[in-house]
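Regression test case RT-17, inverse folding.

Input:
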């Protein structure tokens, strides 16, 4: 990083919201992988052949979910709970490999909503000049959604 570049933290994760989420997520994964500990996975799938496709998809999705939980845990332990930050010209959420957008490519930042299982979550949508759209939820942040949106817009104007 050159001397002109600096890291600006825009939002942080809340320990009181993130830690229970992390623990609940890990406890949900345990029954999914229980067959690996009790018997060989192939034997498990043969006994439940009608569910094999769903079990395999669950195992693959479970690995991705576990990686997301590891990223969250890493952010909580090592980066002072940083959730969104600017690193030079890059806007980063959670991890530079998870979501990284060049701030010069951003056209618009708007709020939105995401619904799953009847629950609604407020999100921030990053709309890029090249047509890509990235979004993230602010539910685990220590600041309120509108404050995060305001801080994000201000930081991008100042940088």
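Golden output:
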């Amino acid at each position: 990083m050159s001397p002109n570049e600096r890291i600006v933290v825009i939002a942080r994760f809340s320990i009181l919201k993130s830690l229970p989420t992390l623990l609940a997520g890990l406890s949900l994964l345990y029954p999914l992988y229980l067959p690996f500990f009790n018997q060989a996975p192939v034997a498990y799938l043969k006994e439940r052949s009608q569910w094999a496709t769903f079990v395999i998809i669950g195992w693959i999705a479970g690995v991705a979910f576990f990686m997301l939980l590891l990223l969250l845990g890493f952010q909580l332990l090592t980066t002072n709970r940083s959730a969104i930050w600017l690193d030079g010209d890059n806007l980063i959420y959670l991890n530079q490999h998870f979501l990284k957008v060049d701030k010069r490519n951003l056209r618009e930042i708007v709020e939105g909503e995401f619904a799953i299982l009847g629950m609604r979550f407020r999100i921030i949508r990053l709309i890029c000049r090249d047509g890509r759209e990235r979004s993230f939820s602010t539910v685990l942040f220590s600041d309120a959604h509108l404050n995060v949106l305001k801080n994000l817009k201000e930081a991008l104007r100042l940088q």
